[in-house]
Task: inverse folding
């Protein structure tokens, strides 16, 4: 009898020794699905905001890059045409280049013969329109960068409310599964909101820097054009 007991204990010990611990993993999809309906709705909204932010960023980036491309010899050709009285040739060159700088210079060329102050005003007004065109939809990125974390925190509050509700109605027996769903909602929406906000914020600031470079380019060429008109003949 003693031998049988010892043998059964050894077999049990061998089974425990051979058993490997099971490591539980959780994918992003499982993490989102565990957050409940409220968490899934907020995650979906944040995902749409992320897609919109990425689209706006690349669309504006390509537009700004195209606007910044201009021949370094452009202004020299314009000044030569204006000095020789070839106004039509200068306007044709501006139309061929078709950039914010060329459109500003073309506006100034069309006012040649009027007082310099009027030419300057016309160029400034055209410049404001060009800047507005360059900054199209960029403000949406700023809105997303501020709104996304707030929406994420809203999910956090909802998740905590759900967890507290389950604790209050547990009757002394807390359902860990339902409690975990509320915590998943709280954590996943916070992380998602911060990620979307950071991406949109970085994209917005990068576009602002790129736009400022184009604006500086427009201002520099406009001043160069006005200085040329102000030179004594």
Result:
């Amino acid at each position: 009898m003693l031998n049988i007991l010892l043998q059964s204990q050894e077999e049990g010990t061998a089974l425990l020794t051979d058993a490997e611990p099971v490591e539980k993993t959780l994918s992003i999809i499982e993490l989102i699905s565990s957050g409940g309906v409220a968490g899934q709705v907020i995650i979906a909204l944040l995902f749409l905001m992320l897609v919109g932010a990425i689209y706006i960023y690349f669309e504006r980036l390509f537009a700004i890059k195209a606007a910044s491309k201009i021949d370094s010899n452009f202004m020299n050709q314009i000044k030569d045409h204006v000095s020789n009285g070839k106004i039509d040739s200068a306007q044709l060159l501006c139309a061929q280049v078709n950039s914010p700088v060329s459109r500003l210079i073309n506006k100034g060329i069309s006012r040649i013969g009027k007082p310099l102050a009027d030419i300057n005003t016309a160029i400034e007004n055209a410049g404001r329109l060009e800047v507005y065109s360059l900054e199209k939809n960029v403000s949406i990125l700023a809105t997303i960068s501020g709104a996304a974390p707030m929406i994420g925190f809203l999910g956090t509050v909802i998740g905590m409310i759900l967890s507290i509700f389950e604790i209050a109605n547990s009757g002394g027996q807390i359902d860990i599964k339902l409690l975990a769903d509320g915590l998943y909602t709280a954590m996943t929406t916070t992380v998602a909101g911060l990620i979307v906000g950071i991406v949109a914020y970085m994209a917005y600031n990068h576009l602002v820097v790129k736009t400022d470079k184009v604006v500086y380019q427009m201002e520099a060429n406009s001043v160069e054009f006005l200085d040329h008109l102000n030179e004594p003949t």
